[in-house]
Design brief:
Layout: E1 2-6, E2 9-11, E3 17-24, E4 32-38, E5 44-50, E6 56-57, E7 67-72, E8 77-82, E9 91-99, E10 104-107, E11 111-115
Parallel strand pairs: 2-11
Antiparallel strand pairs: 1-3, 3-8, 4-5, 4-9, 5-6, 7-8, 9-10, 9-11
Length: 117
């Protein structure tokens, strides 16, 4: 089982990034996918989740209107489009897969996003 995030990096305030999380080794289309983030010295927080059939839920108030989650079940990939980035968006971003029927959870290794001028 693997979840591999990519697309992080350094971006100026107001800029955009698109994160990807490629899954392998499990039935991706049956899993709810989420993006979490952890800023230095803080706990990990939920950014947004998307159901197995593409319904979005649980956008954090701090990212509403700026971030968009999507998924491509054929490519076994979930995306996070991040626009109008702010310095407070700086964090390690993780993707997570959940399947409640089997109490199964997988985490990726994370990708660093730094928003700074």
């Amino acid at each position: 089982v693997q979840l591999v995030e990519s697309g992080g990096g350094l971006v100026q305030p107001g800029g955009s990034l698109r994160l990807s999380c490629a899954a392998s080794g499990f039935a991706f289309s049956s899993y709810r996918m989420s993006w979490y983030r952890q800023a230095p010295g803080k706990g990990r927080e939920l950014v947004v989740a998307i159901t197995s059939v593409g319904g979005t839920t649980n956008y954090a108030d701090s990212v509403k209107g700026r971030f968009t989650i999507s998924r491509d079940n054929a490519k076994k990939t979930v995306y996070l489009q991040m626009n109008s980035l702010k310095p407070e968006d700086t964090a390690v971003y993780y993707c997570r897969a959940d399947r409640s029927s089997t109490f199964t959870t997988y985490w990726g290794q994370g990708t660093q996003v730094t928003v700074s001028s």
